[in-house]
Automatic annotation (TrEMBL):
One of its GO terms (molecular function) is hydrolase activity, acting on ester bonds. InterPro entries: GDSL, SGNH_hydro_sf. Keywords: Signal. Residues 1-26 form the signal peptide. This is Carbohydrate Esterase Family 16 protein. The lineage of its organism: Eukaryota, Fungi, Dikarya, Basidiomycota, Agaricomycotina.
Amino acid sequence: MKSFLSPAILGLSFLSSLSLPEHVLAFFSVPGVPTLRPATLSGRDRNNGIHLAVSPVCGPLSGNVSDVNAGIDIKRIKTIVAFGDSYTDGGRDDGGPLAPPVVVPPDAEAGGRSTDGKVWIEDIAEDIGATLKDYAQSGACTDLSMWPSAIKKVDFLGQMQTFLNQSNHLDPDTTLYAIFFGINDYEDSKTDGTANLQAAAKVILNQISILASPPTNARSFLVTDVYGRGTHTPEGDAMVQTIFSGLAELRANASASSKTKLNFAFAEFARIWDGVLDGDPGYKAFGYVSTDACIVDCTIEECTTDDMCDDPDHYFYYIPGHPSKEGHRIMADYVQEVLQRCVEE
């Protein structure tokens, strides 16, 4: 007698040949059939062998900074609106379709990105089948008026103005707003002084308040940080703590004053940088062969593929200070672990 596999089993068999994130696989689970895990699918061959070797440190949206998901159901998200700097910049800053994430030598930047492929927020959008509207700009800080030394004259306030001027009509229940700032504020503070790092934190909170108000009425926010990229200072840590505590206050105030529920997730990318650069567990545990940049032939205006390394997939940085596409992939994986594992009841 011939044995036939059900369509569900055949579908899972097909999925097992793909390198899909765990939360995506969960969408395809079938009663009575074990959900496949990334390790079952392709082990450490996924993402050219680069993988997370650290885990989120979950905690409540109160107290000290931790990884947390307070109310975001990623399966409901159909649109992601992203604000940020070069780590989130997909090569276009008006929310329109992004250029293909392909390197065309001698230009080292894939479609205008500061890496050799998709940035982390693109990976997340692709994983969940969401439309990405990206307003991030390379070199952006929170507010240029606070940082006279800023090299690139772009900031969160300008990105917000672009977004608001478009009068987008996005469903608050299915739209996630991703906000990733701090790196350039921290770098500028080395010249202009650290006093305004607290003000930078408040800019982020104020802009979230604007997004949560009419006409946008945003309800779900993902906030991330890696201000020092492996370096920690009391002033920088205090900035992150102010942001984190402010999110809890915004959530509590919204609920108390108008019965409106604001949903926040916070992902601390510093755990990746600390794990790679500080020797615990170290870069080799992630699959990297070097913590250096593969490409060093860069100016403020451009980076070229001249004299690039022979193994860009396994260098932590693609260009100075900017992770490779594999690094962006594990950043996306980290966020998705936070959304799955750090759910605040």
